[in-house]
Records
---
Amino acid sequence: MTLPPALAADDDATEVLKVPDFRRLWAANGFGYAASEVAGFALPVTALLLLHARPLVMSLIFVCSRAGFLTVGLPAGVWIDRWRKKPVMVWADVAYAVAFGSIPVAYFLDVLTVAQLIVVALVVSMAGVFFEVAHSSVLPYVLPRRRVADGNARLQTSQTTIQAVSPSVAGVVTQSIAAPVLYCFVGLCHLMSLLLVRRIHPSGDVARDRATPERRFRREIADGMGVLFSQPLLRLLLNQAALNNIGAGIILAMLPVFLLNEIGISTWMFGLLSTLGALAGFAASLLAPRLRRRFGEIRMTLIFSALAPFAVVAAPLAGVFRGVAVPLIARRVRASAALPG
């Protein structure tokens, strides 16, 4: 990889936001994060309150929204390693904008269906895999090598801030407009992201090994899987993360059904609870490094995994004690934010 002279001259003295390409990438990510949070809020509200989707259908939508990494996660990493990263991000933003933009169009034409939401969730999931992998790969091409961690920190701070604000704002807005209209904002955000990404000129971002045979492609995937499963600690962490994610997936798929249909909370309160979850996650991210340094990463993983059932119990209790349903759900959100992912 060849760095631009301005970046190669003094890696340690470079302030990441003073690098034009990173500044554009940072702004593009801001629009993308805002779009993701608003879309994540609007989807269950649209499906449940407008289209009256059943719990089984909500589960299907959730599965489709996560299908990308499960189906093309491994080959996408190998493909993008050979491709230029910038065009991948541009085309992913195009897919985002078209998929999300189709929802308000269908709503205004009175032809919006649950089936369309399922297709949109699947398309967005696939586009998300390619965007995320390409985004992670392009960062070393726009920043000095020693400042990549600082760049990631800037991006993470922006993401946390937007996660804390967007759901509540979206919840308040849906008191006046229909949830599908929010996707106009989502599509516009991805168009802005697309324009910013197009102005990035990552040095050294070139395609490689276009003529690589299929056998080598399969070998690279097999090698990656072999490393993962041959290491006992990695295998243990993989199993632990898989079990946690299965449980979290069940909760995330059914929580909107439980809150919006069973408990009957308002959309603004639904957005506020999402904001509490983001703030709790931010607080946990500040506390976790200190606990990890003091007690050890494996020990803390075991402790918080053991606490997970107690955090989850608060949610079904909200259905029994409806007078304090919102505090119970908020308690579950705050507690689960500290759990390992």
---
Amino acid sequence: MRTAQRRSARGRPPGPQAAAPAGRRRPARHRPWPAWCAALALAVALGLPTAVPRAQARPADGTATALPSLPAPDAHGLDLTQWREVPGFDGRLGEATFLTDAVFAPAGAGKPSIDPVRKPVKVRIHLPAHYDPAKRYPVLYLLHGGAADVKQWSEPGDGDIAHTLEGTAFDGIVVMPEGGKAGWYSDWPGHTDGNFAPQWETFHIRQLLPWIDANFATRAERSGRAVAGASMGGLGALKYAAAHRDLFSSVGVFSGGTDIRPAAAQRTVNDSLWFYGAAFSWTGLLDGTYRVTGSTAHRMETVFGPASGWAAFNPVQVAATEASYKAYDGRLALYAGTGESDIHEWNEALHAPLTARGVTHRYCTGPGGHEMRLWQQDLRNFLDYIHGSGTRSCPNGWAPPTS
């Protein structure tokens, strides 16, 4: 990937990248973690709040909406350990912490190097104003990018979901799950050097999605669900849309990876598995057993399986099939800046077969790079597009391609 393309909002690598800094070599052995990493991790650890028992948010006081009670906190393979209000969001942003067998699963010939294998994983849930359990709300599953975490879309100064949604046609629930710094929204068929593997798709689709429907006032059918994401999360949205046409009705992709076959995309995956491996948030970030060593081909197969099976989920290949993304006709939107180099090229490569197959979709492009400030406007535009507000122009001063 070109060095210029690696610049991103708040210093994060772009997608589908979750890579180490440009120019870093891919060693065959573990490298010691820099001293500053350990010091930073220790500082963060000392500042973390002590876990508290599962509890409800403070009562509504007339100016804030209290978090709702959860009728099925332990369900669908998820054990809830904490349900708390995230301060500063007027009672509308909750954070759930789960234990699940999907994060992580033992894999490989040896015993997993971590004990216990199950690690706490978080999901943030943003509720509409004046949330009413007697109503039914649409749900957006919003996926974070590479090198990021569960907080990316919600924190002020980053995705700032509360303000990003203001003035849009969307009045629903936003689910922002952890997906791993280099999880690639996949059930890993391979494993880390420590003999365990994340099963992110299982966690998101088979466990979290029905858990959300069991605990919140959702429109629990395909027409009530959308999936979207930025960077690595854009690839995840397209992967989930291809595999689960019965669950989602709309797809939004912001600077997303659309093809895992090009050499530049594979270098990104390769680097991410050396630098992050199966780590998420601060879990495993300084532990070499979470990493995957070996060749690029080995690392690609660890996350995605043999190349012979990629056509089932790799977006550009899916788009070229007869089925294509026709289930999302008129409800699929792509956004990519021309300053994003490879990513723009890959989105062009997805736009072409979608057009050839007659899949109506929005494709917006123009000057700009891999930046959260653009993704926020992309998200607003996508939500207005799929909820029929009448907004038909592209965001960011962009426009559809002329050819």
---
Amino acid sequence: MTETTLDRARAGDAEAFRALTEPHRRELQLHCYRILGSVQDAEDMVQETLLAAWRGLDGFQGRASVRAWLYRIATNRCLNALRDAGRRPQPREPAGPPVDVPEPTRRSEAVWYEPYPDALLADLPDTAPGPEARYETREALALSFTAGLRHLPPRQRAVLVLRDVLGFRAAEVAELLDSSGVSVNSALQRARAALDGRLPAPDRDRVPLPRSARERALVGRFVNALENSDIDGLVALLTEDAWLTMPPEPLEYQGHTAIARFYRALPWWGGRALRLVPTRANGQPAFGSYLREPGSAVAHAYGLVVLTLRDDRICAITRFGDNGLLPRFGLPRTLRD
């Protein structure tokens, strides 16, 4: 069936080409997102990958699967894009009025990345990772994993994703990257050492299942606390070691006192009304935020918040201040009462 479809595609049949490539589009987009950290850049790379595949069909010898061939093109396109442009902070729409924030717990390296809408995960093929995968699907989707990848050099990032997330064998990755097995294994060892130092130790049983009653209860308490300007209620939901981060801003706040001090500096406490609209990002609960001025019936976009949960507490709050992200999550720019 595939050989016949491939022959038709080589003869210029666009429908046959779509039949070959469409089943892999969503997973290729997620793969490009992991390497690039941007939903828009990932979409662009998938388009470039499919165009390059269409133009290069005559050169496809069929020694590897169509899926592996597409991953080869997509990975190298992503690496070329990073090599050509670097990964610089992107222009963004600021969320609301400027705020004089308190001194952070620490100032980290400024790292730019975006959250990934769960809606784009819905059509992923039900394909188990290869035999050498190291991370479970939920772990490899998590925002902390995406953030950790940003600290790796591009080639190490690609090798780790191909080996430890997708489960390609070392020889397969070497072929995908036109490299040697020795080089791939060396890059993987360095990437693992760097990433392991940044990711929390896996404790899968302590993370509430997505959309479970346990998750909904915790998330509901978070919404209630923020919409009612209840700082004590918010703090009660946090683990002792909770972090608040705002990529690409280098300011990071840890612990009850520091996070409470930050939230007291925000413009809605005791003034403007805040509203949160639920969505999901990277397999985690998330919210579009909106601020409404006193006496106004309109609330304006105020960024996107993603929660990381552990047991019955919140261990990380990640706030993205780019209002341009909201439409990707199906959220409006304004709300009316």
---
Amino acid sequence: MFQYYFVLGLRSLRRNPALTALMVLTLAVGVAASVATLTILHVMSGDPIPHKSDRLFVPLVDNGPPQNYKPGDEPNDNQLSYTDAKNFLNSKAAERATAIYGTSVAVEPERKDIGVFTARGLAVASDYFNMFDAPFLRGQAWSPADDKAAANVVVLGRKLADKLYGDTDPVGQRITLSGKQYQIVGVLDKWTVVPRFHRIIGSADGAFSDEDDMFVPFTTSIRNEMQRNGSTSCTDDIAPGYQAFIDSECTWIQFWFETRNASDRASLQNYLDSYAAEQRKLGRLKRNAANRLYDVREWLDFMKVVGNDNKLSAWLAFGFLVLCLVNTIGLLLAKFSVRAAEVGIRRALGASRREIFQQFLIETTVVGLVGGALGLALAFGALALIAMQSTALTVVAHMDWIMLLTTFAMAVLSAVLAGLLPTWRACQVTPAMQLKSQ
């Protein structure tokens, strides 16, 4: 009977084309608005590295001045000073570790058809690539020995490599960055991480920034005094010169640890507390604040990657869907009311209320399927328009299989819910009254 009722539902779409089109369109617009908003929220709030998100940690120690500080206040900054970053790198407190800060360099191509241009990069440790599962197209990361030697080596992003070398393998060649020669040891493949959890601070689009152009060793960037490109916070005046800057308490470096197991978090916290106690003996970290560790999900929450505005937009979109459902209920009531004579005849011929209920509910499901297909098309269009607004929105405005299935499920469920009242009303038709009126 389900197949028979489904065919009847398809035929009923043509019975009143104008009313059917209005129902489908109302449902599709509501589904599209809510799904487009939900898709962006889904992408923004997803776990970007689920297989190790509970093993990657951001450490924060508060090196702010003690003046006007009260226990429990938020940390002075979300980054670290060079002193703390260097000590953490040398500590071997976890299986892997990396310091991160943004750089900006002048690229001087050998090709005459390309002039000097500025590229954006990161100064990181060699562990960075394994920690965050960076995919290599050619070559590999530099070695820990290169970190210690502060070697002039570089890993290029795919976009920069394609721009400078095309299809040629650049590994082993030299490139001039801000007047200094660097040997290319690797080229990353296209690397899309959403949200870009390890690079939230210091980039224009935060957790939804584009890929970086190149990567150099953290120690090399310090030796070569590479220009910083990102956020820097200083609470006191510092003396002139680069050495005075890195010796200061200015915070400008992000840091990540990777432990072997999630259970190693407690030992890493113990190390952090012991480190802070030692530094206080040396006259640093005078606030005596709590030392914090954040895993990936906690870090995204702490940095408010998904803000209240995003959540409010999702609620408003679902409110609009409810409004569309109310209108759909009214249209279904009108559609089913004109079929009272049909229902009366079927009841008189022996059809039960349950059979009438099943038939009409399946018809509303057909409306939901058609509305879901149209809503999916409208949702893709809405996401395409949203993606055109900025690079950050391009990263998040795409639909995966989960949201694709959610769209149809939401459309069908919405149609079924909207059809419950009209279907129940249709089942209340009294056969004798309808036959007498006919």
